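> call design_seq(struct)
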């Protein structure tokens, strides 16, 4: 009975690890492979066809036997299908191909001014965040923050936002302002 309990606990812990694995999430999402991602191509039973590579800026990788293959802008499932199709055409019978993303290109945003920990922060690929969540990641506002005039710099344009309005609109997807790659959020100092 004790062994069964230990086995059940170990199995449930393994399931949790697998469920939270970034590669598991990437395989089930519609994440598109991009430049600077590191991918692993595995062909079951064919270790010489296993390969790890960083995706170059062009989005095309060079794969043994097949030459140049466009992977940028495609999901892992799309790339698996393409490689399976190419290998089956001339080289293998029913190849089993899997693609895993080992390292995601880090996307960042910056937050500066009257926050407790100003700096550049990674932008999560799996869960979009809004301005209020970005401020929370930076430790929140300092006592000197002017919360009625938070500035967002995006694509060369500046917009101003009130923290209370941002919090009020958090549940409305049309009014919620999501942080994007390269955004700069500035919280100015209030005037006394």
């Amino acid at each position: 009975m004790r062994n069964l309990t230990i086995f059940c606990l170990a199995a449930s812990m393994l399931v949790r690890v697998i469920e939270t694995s970034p590669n598991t999430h990437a395989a089930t999402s519609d994440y598109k492979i991009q430049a600077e991602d590191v991918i692993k191509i595995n062909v079951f039973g064919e270790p010489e066809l296993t390969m790890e590579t960083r995706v170059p800026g062009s989005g095309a990788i060079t794969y043994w036997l097949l030459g140049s293959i466009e992977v940028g802008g495609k999901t892992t499932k799309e790339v698996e299908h393409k490689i399976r199709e190419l290998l089956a055409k001339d080289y293998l019978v029913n190849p089993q191909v899997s693609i895993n993303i080992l390292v995601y290109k880090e996307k960042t945003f910056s937050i500066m001014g009257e926050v407790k920990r100003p700096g550049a922060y990674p932008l999560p690929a799996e869960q979009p965040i809004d301005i209020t969540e970005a401020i929370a990641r930076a430790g929140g506002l300092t006592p000197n923050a002017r919360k009625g005039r938070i500035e967002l710099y995006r694509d060369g344009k500046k917009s101003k936002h009130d923290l209370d309005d941002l919090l009020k609109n958090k549940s409305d997807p049309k009014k919620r302002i999501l942080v994007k790659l390269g955004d700069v959020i500035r919280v100015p100092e209030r005037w006394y």
